[in-house]
Amino acid sequence: MSSIASASANVAEGGKDQQDGRPPAARTSLRASMNLRQSGIYLAFVAITILFAVLTKGDLLAPQNISNIMVQNSYILILAIGMILIIIAGHIDLSVGSVVGVTGAISAVLMVNWDVPWPLALLITLVIGGLIGAWHGFWVAYFGIPAFIVTLAGMLLFRALTMTVLGNQGIGPFPDPIRTLSNGFTNGLLGNIGLGATLGGADLLSILLGLAVCIGMGVAQWRTRAARVGYQQTVDPLPIFLAKFLGAAIAIMAVVIQLARFKNLPWVLVLLGVLVLAYSVLTNRAVFGRQIYAVGGNVQAAVLSGVKVKSVIFWIFVNMGVLSALAGVIFAGRLNLAGPTAGYSFELDAIAAALIGGAAVQGGVGKVVGALTGGLIMGVINNGMSLIGAPSERVMLVKGAVLLAAVAFDVWAKRRAGRG
Q: Which of 27, 276, 313, 392 is most deeply buried (CB count within 10 A of its CB)?
């Protein structure tokens, strides 16, 4: 009945537009829209950042501290990118922490014990991660075992394998290129800017890269807006659209400038930026990305639409295995040591990042940028509470409360949309 009423309302609104002599596209292009499920996470991120900036008397936003937040949470953010695809498809992966541990151990054995050249060792490690993901994907997609059970078993299996590979001892140190990828910074190729306290010491190349990201983001958003107007869909008025874009661009440039003033951009942040761009294109533009949403939204409808559901599920687990292996190498390289306890509880942080970032527990909803934002919220909470000297149990209390609030907000927003 609600859909019928909605359709009647649309017809009535269309009649009003025709009476006003305006095409429907003109009206819809002037109507403001605010999707709480999509925009709430970014507002929450800003609010949490401001809160801890005040509590830490500005230390949170110091150049070195911002760099530390990015580097220290890079592997969680990489895991969150893969996890968001798993959750969108309506599944879960509890094994990623153990996969991080075992792949980091394998890379250490290859590079340190067997003297395999690091590019070849990295490639072998990523392939092994993909095979681990294929193992999970086979049992979930083609054998029909719930992902929760399969990956829970994987969490135990690969943790045991990690200990077996390492012999319950750490292996290191790693080659310099791996340590540079995990902890290093880009060189100031174009020199520094000396413009007072705001830009003083900022690397020009980093600033130009930040501007390029903002311009690319603006072009993509403008094209999306134009396409929606062409299809007579609701979009924000131009002033609101520009205000949102400028707000995001200012935030990005503020972070880039602070990073450039410390030691320029971390290499792992450059890698993360490439991954975010690639997976955003995959989920928003590619057929495979739309199929992931279709599987998570309604698997029966996806089957009737010709989507190869089993294949989609299999490959998202393969992808999760590859990203887990990449995170495993980066984490081991950052510590300069592959240890038997590496990756403990990483799966919880990755799942929390995806859910806080707007993914729906039931599947079918979520964005890569949202998962990244959710991971950064967790990182800001960890870092901010550490700066103010909060004990670890209080940090866990706050993180648990934030996760519960994010999921509760998602449920409330869905019910509100259903009543609308």
A: 313
